[in-house]
Design brief:
The chain has helices spanning 2-34, 36-75, 93-97, 157-172, 176-181; strands spanning 100-104, 109-113, 121-122, 129-133, 137-142, 147-152, 183-187. It has a 5-stranded mixed beta sheet. It has a two-stranded antiparallel ribbon with strand order 1-2. It is rod-shaped, with a radius of gyration of 49 Å. By secondary structure, it is α+β, with helices and mostly antiparallel strands. It has 2 domains: 2-82; 93-187, no CATH class. It is built from 5 helices and 7 strands, in the order αααββββββααβ. β1 and β2 form a beta hairpin.
Length: 215
């Protein structure tokens, strides 16, 4: 009898197990339909899309940088934004084009002829020039300190000095009083006179003028 009841109950248990499994399948399907898995899928898609955009912009930026470097290396020119919009003007550029140069002497301004316009020789990028030269002398102008140098080139020092001073006044277009306000160095090279070398004799007609040593 018990065996019969046991055998009769087996199909019932089997049906119950099957029913529970079906119910679990329905619950799982219902959860899927409710959108929970869909949320995770959407989140993953958004994350992937964001990463793709980031990678795209990073690659674009890298391409721009590389192109800029290659352009600079090939042309030797920086981009327009990096160029100096205010280049430094050449020294004394305005004065070299004018007819007169204003010399600040410390005791007033002396306007002299522009000896930079047609120099005998340009000797430095700062505008320094040799503006007169002969067998007896050479005369130079140095804009940084607005000074003049007269170099005696003839062993007959007094003769060469007299000629140089006359030419100096003539070329600058000044009188002796104005010339004495200027910063003038008059010297003698060692090769011309060992005894007179190494001194600043100035202009002979100025208060600071000194005579050459006697032989």
């Amino acid at each position: 009898m018990k065996a019969s009841i046991s055998n009769a109950s087996r199909p019932l248990r089997t049906r119950q197990i099957i029913s529970r499994r079906l119910a679990q399948s329905e619950i799982t399907a219902a959860r899927g339909a409710s959108g929970e898995p869909t949320k995770y899928a959407a989140f993953n898609q958004l994350t992937i899309a964001g990463m793709k955009k980031t990678i795209y912009f990073a690659v674009l930026l890298l391409i721009i940088i590389v192109a800029s470097v290659i352009y600079t290396a090939v042309t030797g020119k920086p981009s327009k934004n990096s160029r100096n919009e205010n280049p430094v003007a050449e020294p004394e550029n305005n004065q070299t084009q004018s007819d007169k140069i204003d010399i600040n002497t410390g005791k007033g301004i002396v306007a002299v002829n522009n000896i930079q316009k047609n120099p005998v020789e340009k000797i430095a990028f700062d505008g320094s020039v040799v503006f007169a030269k002969s067998d007896n002398y050479a005369m130079s102008y140095y804009p940084p300190d607005q000074g003049f140098i007269v170099t005696i080139e003839n062993p007959n020092l007094d003769l060469a000095r007299s000629q140089a001073e006359d030419e100096f006044i003539k070329l600058l277009g000044v009188d002796k009083e104005q010339a004495c306000l200027l910063k003038v160095t008059l010297n003698v090279p060692f090769g011309v006179s060992e005894k007179a070398a190494g001194q600043n004799y100035g202009l002979s007609f100025c208060p600071n003028g000194k005579p050459f040593p006697q032989n």
